[in-house]
Specification:
The complex is a heterodimer of chains A (223) and B (319). Chain A is built from seven helices and ten strands. Chain A has 223 residues and is of the alpha/beta class. By secondary structure, chain B is an alpha+beta fold. Chain B is built from eleven helices and four strands; from the N terminus they run αααβαβααβαβαααα. The chains are: A alpha/beta (223), B alpha+beta (319).
């Protein structure tokens, strides 16, 4: 599903953010990405989300080399990924329904389909009945679940989460991770960047550890 | 349904015209709703656009009206021949009969002193004052219409020279001269208004651009999030283009309303003035075509202004 071949990223100014990264994530696989601040986690996620382009190497998403695609194709490549952020990135002047429906509107779905899919997505994250609420009136955990509903509403083959539990207490974090596991069980590829080593260890999935822009070791808790 | 999840890659949205029209309709009304959420800002921008465009639009209507005044006046190239004071009634009649024989002249009309005084008394409102005059201060006047093949400027000039040779002639006046000057003035005015249209058009373009630029800043988060969920450039641009469109529509309508209102305010006094001149002149409002022109012009400015700003902004984001 996702493949990095000798990927390096150097920002203008000479700093090497990533050096010679190689890894592959199979279809339907779930993995964690961890490492200290400044280890290159954000850069790696940005390369997948096409917010940055690699200086060297190839990033393959769904067998497509996304590191070299034309600008006008970027939006369509992004639609294959559902993204979840630490700060939720919700639009606060819009209802939960409008926030979650955004990817569908962007892709040009019809009203009936949008309504059905938004309800299904909200149901999955346990927020059915809160469609007309505004994000500000929801708790942090609920806001994050709105963010997750938005990421899965268009049923992308891959989910990408950047510190999704960063602001949540352990119990809520566990709930959120439980959601990711559910999506993974129905075939979605999931990559989660996280600091929460104890949670990662407890869950026991494959873990990519970035250090100084490199990927020297890989822990496979699956055994 | 179970296969749907496996099939995620292919369970895409509907493509084609329906989806396209759907997206457009959605944005069309959503952008209007968005503007309505900040009615004060919306009104201010529309006010500026409307007033800015009403200036040249109003000037063009004024020029059209002046043109119709000058067009109303019979362009029959009359020559007015004023006779000297001492010339008697008989001499004037004799002269007018002689002129009738002239092959260059098709029509001669003598307005003698007495007749002129009666007309003046009737229309000027100075009747009582005129009664106190001992002598009639007006001269005899002979109105001359040249024949059709003597209507060229040179022919009229030579006829004028000929008439000035006459010993009884005080003054020869060609009526179309002032008309030509008026038309020349109107041409200058029209050219001036064209320049003003251009300048104020640019002003509206800048107003719209600046307004959209502020809107882009206010909706920065929205743009970022929309890009992240896979919006194309066209999708992000669309609501702003429609905002520009709505600014154009409402600005254009306001401009036309302002001009119409102004004409309505001027209409009353004008018809009084026109009656005083014994003229049936009716001030004309904006014709349908010119309303259409200003609407299209305003919409064009709105759309182009927002297009330029949004495209620039998106290009910067994509670097």
């Amino acid at each position: 599903m996702l493949q990095f071949n000798n990927v390096s990223k150097r920002y203008t100014g000479g700093k090497d953010a990533l050096r010679n990264i190689n890894f592959e994530l199979g279809r339907g696989e779930m993995a964690f990405l961890t490492g200290h601040s400044g280890a290159g986690k954000s850069t790696l996620l940005k390369l997948i989300a096409l917010l940055e382009r690699p200086t060297q190497g190839q990033v393959l998403l769904d067998n497509q080399n996304i590191s070299r695609i034309a600008k006008r194709h970027i939006p369509f490549a992004r639609r294959k990924i559902g993204m979840i952020f630490q700060d939720h990135r919700l639009l606060h002047d819009r209802t939960v329904y409008d926030n979650v429906s955004l990817p569908l509107i962007v892709a040009g779905f019809r009203h009936q389909d949008i309504s059905r899919r938004v309800r299904a997505a909200l149901d999955k994250v346990g927020l059915l009945g809160k469609e007309q609420r505004y994000p500000i009136s929801l708790s942090g955990g609920e806001q994050q679940r709105v963010g997750i509903a938005r990421a899965i509403v268009s049923k992308p083959p891959m989910l990408l989460a950047d510190e999704p539990t960063g602001n949540l207490d352990p119990r809520l974090s566990e709930e959120i991770m439980g959601l990711f596991e559910q999506f993974n069980q129905v075939g979605v590829t999931v990559l989660i960047a996280s600091h929460d080593i104890s949670l990662i260890n407890r869950l026991g999935y494959r873990t990519l550890v970035l250090s100084g822009g490199q990927l020297p070791q890989e822990h496979d808790y699956h055994g | 349904m179970a296969s749907r999840r496996q099939n995620t890659l292919h369970s895409g949205p509907p493509f084609g015209l329906t989806a396209y029209i759907h997206i457009h309709l959605h944005t069309f009304f959503a952008s209007l709703g968005c503007l309505a959420r900040t009615p004060f800002n919306f009104m201010m921008t529309i006010g500026v656009i409307g007033i800015t465009l009403s200036l040249p639009a109003g000037m063009l209507v004024a020029i059209d009206n002046f043109k119709s005044i000058s067009g109303n006046i019979d362009l029959n190239h009359n020559i007015s021949l004023y006779l000297k004071h001492h010339v008697t009634q008989e001499a004037a009649e004799h002269l007018s009969n002689t002129l009738k024989e002239n092959p260059k002249i098709s029509h001669v009309r003598l307005i003698d002193k007495q007749q002129a005084l009666e007309e003046f008394r009737e229309y000027s409102g100075f009747g009582a004052a005129l009664n106190t005059l001992e002598k009639n201060p007006l001269p005899h006047l002979i109105q001359i219409t040249p024949t059709d093949d003597n209507l060229s400027e040179e022919a009229i000039q030579s006829l004028r020279d000929e008439l000035e040779q006459n010993s009884e002639t005080q003054n020869v006046q060609i009526d179309m001269a002032w008309l030509k000057r008026l038309n020349a003035l109107l041409n200058i005015a029209e050219r001036t208004v064209s320049i003003i249209v251009l300048l104020l058009g640019i002003a509206v373009l800048l107003i719209v651009s600046n307004t959209i630029r502020l809107e882009l800043q206010n909706r920065r988060d929205e743009i970022d999030v929309t890009r992240l969920v896979g919006a194309t450039r066209a999708f992000i641009r669309r609501p702003f283009i429609y905002s520009g469109f709505w600014y154009g529509v409402f600005g254009g309508v306001l401009a036309c309303l302002l001009v119409t209102l102004s004409i309505w305010l001027i209409d009353g006094p004008t018809s009084i003035l026109s009656k005083l001149y014994g003229n049936s002149f009716q001030i004309s409002y904006m014709p349908f075509l010119s309303i259409l022109f200003w609407l299209v012009f305003a919409i064009l400015l709105g759309v182009v202004g927002s297009w330029v700003v949004v495209s620039r902004h998106l290009s910067r984001l994509e670097q």
